[in-house]
Amino acid sequence: MSSIESFSGIGVYEMQSAAAREMQRIMAEAKGDRLKADKIVLSKLHELNFITEAELPVLTHICELGHKATGGKHDAAKAYHEVKKAYEELMMKGNASPVALAYASGAVGSYVSDDGGGGGSTTVVYKKSGGNWQGTLAGAGRVIGGYFGGAGGAALGAAVGSVVGKIIDEC
To answer: What is the pTM (predicted TM-score) of this model?
Structure first.
């Protein structure tokens, strides 16, 4: 049975309930500190072998940049370009875990930017999404998806959590 097939018997309600309980547990452990919560999630992903030892500091840096940009402590455009570069470096190595790629890709997408629609080399970054729910929910999705479906489930959970979080951040 592939890791994705193991999802077939799990309903949306069960996933929502598991994600809500996991988020409550993580936020309680972090005492409400969202950056600390995101780092707890990254540590858990490493513990579960969904991300590698080499990926952990890269993803932690991406996470820290996002929180600094959201809080106005780092220029959003500079943070965006640093995060995008880190993501591209993960891709170019050719051996990055699906979870690390989903995390980094979601982080790049959490910045409100415009490349003029043509995918050119000039990108205007307007801001970092303000709520940082994108990162937090992507993290919860990774952990919950990983429990149910291994590395493939973690990558899928990250993608879904990232999209939902982005929607929340922009509303």
So the answer is: 0.70
**Could you report the per-residue pLDDT of 96-154, keeping only the tens digit for each?**
988 888 888 888 877 776 665 555 555 565 555 556 666 667 777 777 777 777 777 77
Alpha carbon distance 81, 68 (integer Å): 14
Q: How many CB atoms lie within 10 A of CB 165?
A: 25
